[in-house]
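Problem: given the chain below (290 residues), write out its structure.
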Amino acid sequence: MLARQITKAVIPAAGLGTRFLPATKASPKEMLPLVDKPLIQYVVEEAVSAGITHIIIITGRGKRAIEDHFDISFELEESLKQKGKEALGQDLRKISEMADFCYVRQSEARGLGHAILCAKNLIGDEPFAVLLGDDIIDHQTSALQQMAEIYERNQAPLIGVQRVPASDVHHYGILDSESALDGLYKINGMVEKPSLKEAPSDLAVIGRYILIPEIFELLEKTVPGKGNEIQLTDALKELAKIRNMYGYVIQGNRYDAGDKLGFLKATVRMGLKNKDLGEEFKTYLKSLSL
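Solution.
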């Protein structure tokens, strides 16, 4: 019997970040600052808001900064304390206390499916969440919290989606689905980056999933595709054949922070929301001659 509450999440973070070169030559893409926090911290905070207590980060070569960020920094905290900035030190300590962190190294880049498969032994027989750090989703109720509440009612695998313009369907995996109860879409299949003519809908898969342990067996059977990569989409299509699986249109403003323009848009959004900088930043933006 499946557990009702999701307590584990996998965050794949082994990518090379080539779209942000040269900024990511020596620094992980996940550590790029969005105002005053690295991208991956926004994703971790979203997971924690949904009740996640164990976070498995899939890393690779050159990703040590991620582990350091979520570790205790005693020397820095002590230095801040001596300078009368103890409150800031306490804020830093909270970062390491948000959840129990575990790191698994993906020895070679073999796709998203392989990255998730690396977490198999740590997930065990529990349902779990997957969050991609490229997607920053801003909403009062976090994206994963929205999905977790639905999963607890339906006990079925769930994929986060958003509607996209017809001109953008070729950038995404697109659902072949039918409307179901509670605003969900029962998934019959998926088409990866179709042409507009081939697209079965405008429902695009984005970086939020709640999956069940059966996905691991399917990933192990998935034949590698281009670049010897194991694609999660291929395994999800097989899962949809044997289990009810649903798409949920996530509420909120979503930014593709893995893209330079998307990253800039997210920076503006989060900058305007910042309690210390927001008003002054808004004044500055209004002063620009655009």
